[in-house]
Amino acid sequence: MHIHLRAKPNASANVLLRAADGSLVVRLKAPAQDGKANACLLAYLAQVFGVSKSQVELLSGHTAPFKKVGIDLDEAEGQARLQQVLAHAH
Question: Signal peptide span per the entry (predicted)?
């Protein structure tokens, strides 16, 4: 599955949220330098979706806040896990 999201580094905790406009936002503890935020993002998404880090790939947005991430997971299962995480984020 592919997800589009906005990464916000330097947060107090790693959190996946849905913004008011319906887009996905991930707040990350890591700073946006030397790829630390990207590495943190991929590890966090692997944890959220219950897959290994090798199953999560940054497809675009390596140096931008808007990212496209590929997750080696069935679309229906991935959407179900995403909805479950977002339901608990409030």
Answer: none
